[in-house]
Write a structure and sequence with these properties.
By secondary structure, the protein is α/β, with parallel strands linked by helices. The chain contains 17 helices and 19 strands. β7, α8 and β8 form a beta-alpha-beta unit. The radius of gyration is 24 Å and the shape is globular. It binds 1-deoxynojirimycin and calcium ion. 1-deoxynojirimycin binds next to loops.
């Protein structure tokens, strides 16, 4: 791609950085130990003026029995009292917009709570007008479930309903029955939900397990997973199958084309965005969710960096694979952490976490950051008696539980890390390191991860080459280093990342000198020789090439 192409006027969700808030854990304004909307409102200035992100995505805030902490929705058009009221939501949305930020909310289309009135009605009788809103089936003649599908959270995906003598499908816990999106009434009711929030002014949706809503209409059995040896018993039974029938049916694309048309209608006012949670690691399939005509999701989340074995070669391979498949004109994106994945600093270590942040904040594509990532927050080991996550309760001891990455935001060195106004124990324990890893301390410390993120975001925002310019890998001899070029409007930057704990030197094809704009290490030299660029252990640096005509 030529530089001018990369320099087209980018939309807010392309140019900006998204920040995910897990509302239970961000800021508790009323001292009940659980984060809430007024708490988020209190901290908007932190996001707008200190971290300087562009958009916020809120994990679910709707009424819910909280079996899966909000991903079991019992009313799509209200706010759970633990988080506040619709009025609190409106005030928050205004606060977000007043600061020039955007608000993305979670849309959970695949399943409701079993306490949703739709499901209560559906399970009331085989003749219920909403029976077909969910996926009910007779047992096999021997009484066992209709097929071999499994729940991601352990056990069968089918729950027996004694009263009506049928099974219903639940891809997650049994309290999360799957909706039947092949029923036009379901689709229409769910589109009304989207309209409700668009009319209220939200700027977009993060769509929960977006590809799960269309399954094989014949509900055929999944085949065994050939990647497992015959005698191997998978630790998590879910891994024992090839999941080819229980999600990702091609009919899903038609639904997202319609969702896109709806968003485009509202887009006349201002552009709205759809970001799908799509755990798909086959790149051609992954890119298909943008739509052949780029008329489906604006972005399927790219989760490849969450699972990668952290090395220069593996990370480079991911970026190049993404750059390759998005050549159809799709806009890339990167994620380092979320509420379902162990924290970045625990996965790759504190020093490499800074390198990783430099990576995603200087790549071509939208970065989504997870709350606390900007501080270097780590996983917290949760004692068994404090476990909250149903995944850990159902499939214990395998490290699948998600509580460790959901602990309260660390605001200060005071009681409860400043998360909660009182001494009521927060819903999950506070990390031991909160006296040093917290917003207040890190704002004062130029060597903190927060300071690094602030410097990177400032540079990114003010530099067309970094937020929208072209991307090109640079070959270097050193296998532990990954180096790339970003360029637009006659300005050229080189990002050089050392993935090892040893000092390294890379020689770049650009001749002459460069100026270090940001380094992970504070005391970096201003001017560097690009033919012999020295990187300290775990150092990453963004260098502006001084004479951009000098590339060989
Ligand atoms: C994906 C969400 O991110 C996760 O937290 C949730 O448990 C499942 N979908 C079910 O909604
Ligand atoms: Ca609260």
């Amino acid at each position: 791609m030529r530089a001018e192409e990369g320099a087209k006027e980018p939309l807010w969700w392309q140019q900006g950085v998204i920040y995910q808030i897990y509302p239970r854990s961000f800021r508790d304004s009323n001292g009940d130990g659980i984060g809430d909307l007024p708490g988020i409102l209190e901290r908007l200035d932190y996001l707008a003026q200190m971290v300087t992100v562009d958009a916020i995505w809120l994990s679910p805030i709707f009424p819910s029995p909280m079996v899966d902490f909000g991903y079991d929705v019992s009313d799509y058009t209200d706010i759970d009292p633990v988080f506040g009221t619709l009025h609190d939501f409106d005030v928050l949305l205004t606060g977000v917009h007043d600061r020039g930020l955007r608000l993305i909310i979670d849309f959970v289309p695949n399943h409701t709570s079993d306490q949703h009135p739709w499901f209560k009605e559906s399970r009331s009788s085989r003749n219920s007008s909403k029976r077909d809103w969910y996926i009910w089936r007779d047992p096999k003649p021997d009484g066992t479930p209709p097929n071999n599908w499994l729940s991601i959270f352990g056990g069968d995906a089918w729950e027996w309903d004694e009263a009506t003598g049928q099974y219903y499908l639940h891809t997650f816990v049994k309290e999360q029955p799957d909706l039947n999106w092949r029923n036009p009434e379901v689709k229409s009711a769910m589109f009304d939900v989207l309209r409700f929030w668009l009319d209220r002014g939200v700027d977009g949706f993060r769509i929960d397990v977006a590809h799960f809503i269309m399954k094989d209409p014949a509900l055929r059995d999944n085949p065994p997973n050939p990647a497992l040896g015959a005698r191997e018993i998978p630790a998590h039974a879910w891994e024992s199958q090839q999941h080819i029938h229980n999600f990702g049916h091609p009919d899903v694309h038609g639904v997202y084309r319609e969702v896109r048309r709806l968003l485009d209608e509202y887009g006349n006012e201002r552009p709205r965005v759809s970001i799908g949670e799509i755990h798909e690691f086959n790149w051609p399939i992954w890119v298909s969710y943008y739509g052949k005509q780029l008329d489906e999701l604006h972005m399927p989340f790219n989760f490849a960096l969450l699972n990668v074995v952290w090395s220069a070669a593996a990370v480079r391979a991911i970026v190049e694979a993404v750059e390759d498949v998005v050549r159809i004109g799709a806009w890339p994106n990167y994620v380092l952490g979320n509420h379902d994945t162990h924290r970045l600093a625990s996965r790759v270590g504190a020093a490499q976490a800074r390198v990783a942040l430099m990576l995603v904040l200087t790549l071509r594509g939208t970065p989504t950051m997870y709350y606390g990532e900007e501080l270097g927050m780590k996983d917290v080991i949760i004692p068994p008696e404090l476990v909250q996550d149903p995944f850990e309760k159902n499939v214990p001891g395998l490290g699948l539980g998600r509580d460790p990455e959901r602990t309260p935001m660390q605001w200060s060195a005071s009681a409860n890390a400043g998360f909660s106004a009182t001494d009521v124990a927060p819903w999950l324990p506070i990390a031991d390191d909160f006296k040093t890893i917290n917003v207040e301390s890190e704002l004062e410390d130029p060597s903190s991860t927060l300071d690094l993120v602030r410097r990177l975001l400032e540079l990114r925002r003010s530099t067309l080459a970094l937020h929208s310019g072209t991307y090109q890998s640079i070959e270097v001899e050193e296998p532990d280093c990954y180096v790339y070029r970003r360029e637009a409007d006659g300005r050229r930057f080189v990002v050089a990342l050392n993935f090892s704990a040893e000092p390294k030197t890379v020689s770049l094809p650009e001749s002459g000198r460069g100026t270090v704009r940001v380094s992970t290490h504070l005391d970096s030299d201003g001017e560097v020789d690009l033919r012999r660029l020295g990187l300290r252990p775990n150092e990453g640096c963004v260098v502006e090439v001084q004479d951009s005509d000098s590339r060989e």
